[in-house]
Each structure stands twice: as C-alpha cells, then as structure tokens.
C-alpha cells in the first residue's frame, strides 16, 4: 500500500539520522576515552534527546500545526525543556562525574552548561520538527493535488454531461415522426442513435478515446442531421493522415460540427454548406469546421453560447498547453480551427 510505504520511508529516515549521529559521536569521543566509555557517554544524552524530540514531534508540535495554538505550544515546550534539562543534568552528574576524572564539568551546574545543554536539546527538536513540517507540507500538497484532480474530473464529467441534449431530443422527435409515417429510414435512425448513445455513455467517460471512434460518432451525427433536414445542405469531410493510432479527448470535435449544423444549416435556406477537414501529422491533429452564415445575429450568439464556452473549458482542462483554437467570423463564412499538439 502507498501509505505504508511512505510510513516505512519516514521511519527509515529517522532511524538513519540517529544511527549516523550516534556513530559519529562515538567515533569522535572514543579517540579520547576509549570505545566502551564513549558508547556510555553518548548514549545517555542521546536517549534524552530522542525522548524530548519525539514527545515534541508527536504530542506537542501537532497542537501548533493543526490547532494553530501557539501560546499552548510555547507553554508545553517550556515544560518539556525544563523537565529534560533538569533530568539530563542530574543524570549526567551522577553518571559522568567519575567517568572523566580530570574534569569538573559534571560536578557543578553553571549557566554556560545549562545554555549548552538547552541548545543541544533544541537543535534536535528543531531538526525533527523541520522533518515533521516538511512531511506535513508534502502531504498537504499531495492532498491539494488529489482534490484538484478530483475537481477537474468532476468538472469534465459535468461538461460532458451537458453535450448535445437538444440533439437527442430532436432526434427522438424525428424518429417518432418517421416511425409514425412508416418511413424506411426509421430503422437506420434507430441504429445510428444507438451507436451515438453507446459512445456517449461508455466511451465518452474515458479521458481519451481512439480518434477513429470520434470520427465514427461524427459520421453518425451527420447522417441523422441529414435525415432531419431532408438533405438540404452539402457537406464535405476531408480526412488525411493516420487516424487509427491516435487518441483524443472525447466529445470535443463534435461541438464544432454541431454548431455548424445548428447555426449554418436551415431547411428554409438555400445553398447551405459545411466543410470539415481533419489532418493528422506526427506532431499535431488539425481540425477545421467552416459553414455558411445564415444569420449574423445567430452567429453572434454562437460565439458566446454554451457550446463553445463548454469546449473552451474542456480544452483548458484536457490540453492546457497543447491546443490552439482560432475563430474566423467573416461576412458570409464562420470557421473554427483547432490544433492539438502532441
């Protein structure tokens, strides 16, 4: 489990630090008083430093970090230091007075010794405390990233859920008419609508889908729209490059095609047309949709409408630094160009 692995790494870090410190101190002092005396000489103060460090680490410091109560923390720290210093100086006087016979250091209690012992203990409290702060900071950052990722996934799922509801309603309405009138096209509509629903329910929930599936989805969409509009428009779909080995975030390309139908095709308008091109290279996917403008006021709504704003947000989430979206609003032509870089 990832949590237990991190816990083991922290334990190893602490153990390694104390082992290195103990080894160095014993090696240094053994040059003067011998190995056995050095082990004894280092063990007592080190044991008390360990005791103070982890009382502070587990019992006192969290009160400041989690509850932000500095005054309580300061009082507890002062009590801990008073107890440790008193106990350490007393213990060292009893244990070391005869260990180093030519020194009076462990036979008296001077201010300089109290300050030295205090600084020695504080050094370890500060060091282990910094480890606690660092680990808590990394843990907080990981939790923030996890929450951000969860938020992004939730937002993406929300945006996906908003796609094409009116298209589905219109298709069902048209299907009802075709079935009622006994049209042979009703079976084809049912199949294509089934394909679209399957894609939206199962494939669209993934982060990436094969580009080929997105193209098949758009082809089914075009066929349903052509039936709904009685084929009163012309459409070209130019595909170049290898689309079989590419992946893309789902339900992005369809938005531009849907907008082209919604705002560029009408069964009451003549000579409506839509041009779609998809060029795949080794470094990019270039997608372009252009259509005849049938109403300038409607086209103005398109630029600020939900569909385009939706896809802009999704592009920022799915391709934050790997997309380029350009919109050309000419007198009679509306064109959207999207480049996704790999």
Automatic annotation (TrEMBL):
InterPro entries in the cross-refs: Bact_2-comp_sensor_kinase, HATPase_C_sf, Sig_transdc_His_kin_internal
Domain of life: Bacteria
GO molecular function: kinase activity
Record Gene3D superfamilies: Histidine kinase-like ATPase, C-terminal domain
Transmembrane segments: 38-61, 73-91, 111-135
UniProt KW keywords: Kinase, Membrane, Transferase, Transmembrane, Transmembrane helix
Residue stretches in coiled coil: none
All copies of domain Signal transduction histidine kinase internal region, residue ranges: 154-231
Pfam families: His_kinase
Name listed for the protein in its UniProt record: Histidine kinase
């Amino acid at each position: 489990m990832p949590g237990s692995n991190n816990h083991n790494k922290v334990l190893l870090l602490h153990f390694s630090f104390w082992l290195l410190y103990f080894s160095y101190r014993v090696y240094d002092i053994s040059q003067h008083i011998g190995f056995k005396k050095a082990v004894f000489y280092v063990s007592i103060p080190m044991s008390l430093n360990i005791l103070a460090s982890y009382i502070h680490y587990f019992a006192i410091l969290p009160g400041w970090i989690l509850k932000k109560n500095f005054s309580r923390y300061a009082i507890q720290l002062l009590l801990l230091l008073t107890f440790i210093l008193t106990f350490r100086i007393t213990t060292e006087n009893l244990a070391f007075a005869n260990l180093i016979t030519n020194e009076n250091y462990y036979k008296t209690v001077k201010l300089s010794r109290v300050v030295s012992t205090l600084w020695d203990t504080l050094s370890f409290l500060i060091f282990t405390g910094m480890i606690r702060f660092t680990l808590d900071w990394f843990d907080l950052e990981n939790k923030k990233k996890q929450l951000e990722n969860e938020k992004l996934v939730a937002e993406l799922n929300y945006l996906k859920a908003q796609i094409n509801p009116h298209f589905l309603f219109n298709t069902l309405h048209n299907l009802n008419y075709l079935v009622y009138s006994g049209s042979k096209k009703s079976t084809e509509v049912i199949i294509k609508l089934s394909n679209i629903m399957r894609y939206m329910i199962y494939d669209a929930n993934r982060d990436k889908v094969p580009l080929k599936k997105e193209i098949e989805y758009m082809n089914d969409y075009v066929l349903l729209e052509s039936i709904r509009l009685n084929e009163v428009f012309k459409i070209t779909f130019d595909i170049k490059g290898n689309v079989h080995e590419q992946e893309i975030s789902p339900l992005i390309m369809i938005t531009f095609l849907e907008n082209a139908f919604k705002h560029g095709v009408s069964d009451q308008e003549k000579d409506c047309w839509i041009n779609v091109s998809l060029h795949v290279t080794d470094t990019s996917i270039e997608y372009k949709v252009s259509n005849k403008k049938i109403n300038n006021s409607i086209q103005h709504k398109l630029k600020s409408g939900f569909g385009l704003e939706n896809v802009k947000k999704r592009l920022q989430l799915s391709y934050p630094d790997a997309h380029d979206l350009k919109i050309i609003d000419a007198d009679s032509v509306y064109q959207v160009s999207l480049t996704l870089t790999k």
